[in-house]
Design goal:
The chain is α/β, with parallel strands linked by helices. It binds uridine-5'-diphosphate-glucose and manganese (II) ion. It comes from Acorus gramineus (Dwarf sweet flag).
């Protein structure tokens, strides 16, 4: 359809280039010149000294990372969607495609079942014809309490969904809604109902006892699958249809969304490919049952915060001018419950909110794993009509058999699943990898970031968890970098230069460890390349609704990661490739129990007490070395003439690291609470610092 008067007046979505584009481009040009000058200087004054090589390498890495980063600023666009124009353009609710929602969970201890239930409930209550929404829960933990929780949730949903509609609730996760200060006067009863359910489930989690009165023989049969030898890593498929939209109605007689629990078969001898495997199993199960043309993927730590989110996605999918190769619409990850200044930099504003705007102007944002609406066709790679009015299949016995068959752990053998179909295997960042491969295959994507955010989730709230998460990502990215799908060789060729640069920026993530570690241990004159990044970085951060404190914490975490999870990820990846160890998906902890700990988190105090982690050893070592170097530098500057002139930048650099390490010194010396640095870590890092000083002394006296 051409741009008629009508479509111009009633757009489904708009897209405008960022007004500051030319400014950023000019800055990029100037910075490029400066970078080249520094590199030129380094190469000309290259001496065969031990100190110069790491510095040259560091500058090269900084220059490359900086260059890759420019691709995110080449063509930034801002999009808006207008769901209210759907009916005005004659696209009425009964014509909307149906929607399959996938919710993943994997471990009831790290991901409490009530959190998963809240995610599912928030999706069941979308502003969308209820008969067209089907929620599938993938339980990789194979946990009976999770199923029990969902049996409860199915009953509660019959009240919750009509309540949301009637009262116009915005946060459709009950937990978030009831936690908010002002609730609707009619909510007393339903809140009590929710509390009862929560208490039951939490009690079942603690005691392992059965709580729910089962609905019928069906559910009894399902529970009998949990035999004595049923374990998380070794069990048959369990599928339970808890609600069927063709049969079940809510308390006021409207159709209910379907709710289906799936725990795919697992056997120790067959690789299950973590979340990507779970999503592929759900893709197939849903294809046998409801086969909706649109699929929404959600992690169990994300809730819907804008009931119109699916309609916003439709604004793109149903636009008659939409590109036929539009694979997905990505909503960014936003987080709640973080401390005011985000001490652990877990908001990841860059990767989740700022950078996708840049990719959106090229071929589209990367896939962030959650909050993403897919066209089923992009995953199956087979033709499928987008306007299926009625679902073409029913949830009946024969389909259930089929569903069991497609969740067998050996089903994928000899198929293209994970290779060229569905979510792709081979990297711990299956989201990044899948989006990247789809872009390479010619698909495009769209970024949709409405205000207020459509999906909000939980970020890790302690240092150890956040570094483990970052380490898993770094390993996953290295896996892509060193695969045949390398983002430069394969990516640039198959997508384009700028998109290849964007993806490379992430693929080389662990390489940050080279300059950061180098500059942490070898403070020299040339942070020149790194320093000018800061003011611009800050500016971009503030424009994306950040605060100065959050930015400062963010850059501090960048330095901390540079000496902890980035290098450790590289080492682990190296071992993996030598066949010494395998890669595992370390789940990010979501449970918040220890009161003292969450209290410290709320007050923005670093947490080192949880474990004696190798992360903390390297961090404490760096902190000690820089502190000593800084004081020695200051004292010598006072005592020795001319010292300060030649060593000025070095001392300033050390001072910068020292300021950043402030929480580490506090945790080492001053603090008495449970979050202070464990004595063992202190001793080991003190020893490491001594060794490094000794080596430095030997090298310099050679
Ligand atoms: O074997 C597994 C492992 C994980 N998951 C699920 O995957 C999701 C993400 O796991 P989480 O521990 O929360 O990881 P995060 O670091 O918070 O997740 C980020 O990074 C992941 C890739 O490493 C992406 O999948 C996520 O979408 C992205 O938010 C959760 O819902 C898990 O239940 C599974 O279903 N099966
Ligand atoms: Mn998560």
């Amino acid at each position: 359809m051409a741009d008629t008067e009508e479509t111009k007046a009633l757009p489904l979505h708009t897209c405008h280039p960022d007004p500051l584009t030319s400014l950023t481009r000019t800055h990029a040009l100037l910075h490029t010149c400066a970078t080249l000058a520094v590199l030129h200087h380094r190469l000309r004054h290259l001496s065969p000294s031990l100190l110069h090589l790491p510095l040259l390498l560091s500058d090269l890495v900084l220059a490359f990372m900086w260059a890759f980063n420019q691709a995110f600023h080449a063509r930034r666009v801002r999009r808006l969607t207008f769901p209210e124009n759907l009916p005005r353009r004659g696209v009425r609710a009964h014509q909307w495609p149906s929607l399959d929602v996938f919710v993943c969970t994997a471990d009831p201890r790290k991901e409490p079942p009530m959190g998963v239930v809240n995610t599912a409930l928030s999706a069941m209550a979308f502003d969308y014809p209820a008969g067209k929404v089907n929620v599938y829960v993938s339980d990789d933990g194979g946990c009976r309490v999770t199923l029990l929780a969902f049996a409860e949730a199915a009953r509660f949903a019959r009240h919750w969904v009509p309540f949301c509609r009637e009262v116009g609730v915005r946060e459709r996760s009950p937990e978030a809604y009831f936690a908010a200060p002002r609730a609707h006067p009619n909510s007393v009863e339903i809140k009590a109902m929710y509390e009862r359910m929560k208490e039951k489930v939490d009690r079942a989690m603690e005691t392992g006892q059965e709580i729910a009165e089962m609905n019928g023989p069906d559910e009894h049969k399902t529970f009998s699958k949990w035999t004595a030898d049923f374990t998380r890593e070794d069990h048959p498929t369990v599928i339970q249809i808890l609600l069927d939209s063709e049969r079940d109605v809510d308390v006021v007689g409207h159709a209910m969304p379907s709710l289906i629990y799936v725990s795919r078969e697992k056997r120790p001898c067959v690789h299950h490919h973590f979340k990507a495997g779970a999503l592929n199993a759900l893709t197939r199960v849903s294809a046998t049952m409801t086969n909706a043309p649109i699929i929404l993927t959600l992690d169990c730590d994300m809730n819907c915060n804008d009931p119109q989110a699916p309609q916003r996605a439709l604004c793109h999918f149903l636009d008659p001018d939409a590109p036929p190769n539009l694979a997905y619409v990505q909503f960014p990850q936003h987080f709640r419950g973080m401390d005011e200044n985000d001490i652990y930099g877990c908001e990841w504003k860059g990767p989740f909110q700022i950078n996708p705007i840049g990719m959106d102007g090229l071929r589209g944002p990367d896939f962030e794993g959650t909050g993403c609406f897919f066209r089923r066709r992009a995953l199956h790679r087979e033709p499928l009509l987008l306007n299926s009015k009625e679902r073409d299949r029913n949830i009946d016995a024969s389909n259930l058999d089929m569903a069991h068959r497609v969740t067998r752990c050996t089903y994928e053998n000899g198929t293209k699943w994970g290779a060229t179909m569905g979510f792709r295997y081979g990297s711990l960042v299956e989201d990044y990898f899948t989006g990247y491969r789809l872009h390479c295959e010619g698909w495009v994507s769209v970024f949709c970031d409405p205000q207020p955010p459509a999906f909000v989730g939980d970020a890790p709230c302690n240092l150890q968890d956040s570094l483990i998460q970052c380490m898993r990502w770094s390993i996953g990215l290295l896996e892509v970098l060193f695969s045949k799908y390398n983002t430069i060789a394969f990516g640039v060729k198959n997508i384009n230069l700028l998109m290849g640069m964007c993806y490379s920026h992430y693929a080389f993530w662990a390489f940050w460890s080279i300059p950061i570690t180098t500059y942490a241990f070898l403070p020299q004159l040339a942070l020149l390349i790194g320093v000018p990044m800061f003011p611009k970085d800050l500016f971009i951060f503030l424009r994306a609704n950040g605060t100065i404190r959050r930015w400062w914490n963010n850059q501090r975490m960048w330095m901390i990661r540079g000496v902890t999870c980035f290098p450790l990820a590289s080492i682990q990846f190296f071992f993996q490739n030598c066949g010494i160890s395998g890669s595992t998906f370390n789940l990010t902890g979501k449970a918040r129990h220890d009161d003292e700990q969450s209290d410290r988190y709320a007050r923005g105090i670093f947490e080192f007490g949880t474990v004696s982690s190798p992360f903390f050893v390297s961090l404490a070592t760096v902190a000690m070395i820089n502190l000593v170097a800084f004081w020695v530098g200051l004292v010598r500057a006072v005592l020795e003439e001319g010292y300060f002139d030649s060593m000025f930048v070095q001392v300033v650099l050390c001072g910068f690291v020292v300021v950043n390490c402030w929480p580490v010194y506090e945790a080492m010396v001053v603090r008495k609470d449970g979050g202070r640095l464990p004595g063992e870590v202190k001793r080991v890092s003190f020893f490491m610092a001594l060794v490094i000083f000794a080596i430095a002394y030997l090298v310099s006296s050679m």
